[in-house]
Each structure stands twice: as C-alpha cells, then as structure tokens.
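Feature request, filed as a ticket because there's no other form

It would be nice if the structure record came with a short human-readable summary line next to the tokens. Right now we just get the raw output. Example of a typical job, pasted below so the devs can see what we mean:
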Amino acid sequence: MKKLVESVRKRPINLILLISVIIAYLFNNLFLKEQSSGLLRLFFVGYFNDLICPLFFFSYANMLLITVNKEITRLWVTCLISFCTSCVWEFVAPLMKPSSTSDLLDIVCYVTGGIVYWAILRYIKNKNEGTRSNL
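Raw output as currently delivered:
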C-alpha cells in the first residue's frame, strides 16, 4: 500500500484520470446516451466509452508499474498495447459473447485514447520537469 501511495505522489495524474474516466463513463451511460441525438448520440452510444477506456487502463497500469520503478511512457508502446488490447476486445470477445459485434472504428478509438493518455502524460512530465522529456 505504501508503494501505491508513493506512485500516486510521483504521478498524481494517474489517479486524477482514473476518477475522471469513472465520472465520464457514468455521465455518458446515465445522461449523454439518452439526451443526445443524431451523430452525437451515435458517438456517445458507440464510441465514447472506447475512447476513454485506454485512459483508465494506462492510468491504472502505470500506477501499478511505478511501484516497481517502471512506466509506460513511449508512444509506440502505448499504441501497440492499445492496438493489441483492442483487437482482443473486438475479435476475441465476440467469440465468447455472441451478442457482441466487431467494429473497426472501436480500434481507432482505443488507439486514439492511448495517444491521448500519452499526450497528457508527456505534457505533465514536461511541465513538472521543465524540459522536453524523451517520451
């Protein structure tokens, strides 16, 4: 537990993103899906959660990884992990749950969400270190 607290102290953005994604997910499912219409409704019903999922995933993973002095910070690694996990969700999950459907735009959303996480992390690291980091 002590290491996890140190992890949050070192990179508080991960905890902030975890909480923000939970709030955004709940707001989407309880309000936005019902209150929006047209293309906006299509986005909130089909793609918004896929876009914010990587923010949750990488925040949680990095909180744990920092406890062992590791962290996912490179763009190519973030994109690769996002792509591979999205392929599992889009192509393997429907084999286990027949009512699921595959959608290639979901993969784009997962990778885009990973890039957004990387960009936030890069911004925070640069701001805190006062230099351009080599992410």
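Something like this underneath would help us a lot:
Residues 74 and 134 are 8 Å apart (CA to CA).
Helices lie at 2-10, 13-35, 38-46, 48-66, 75-96, 104-129.
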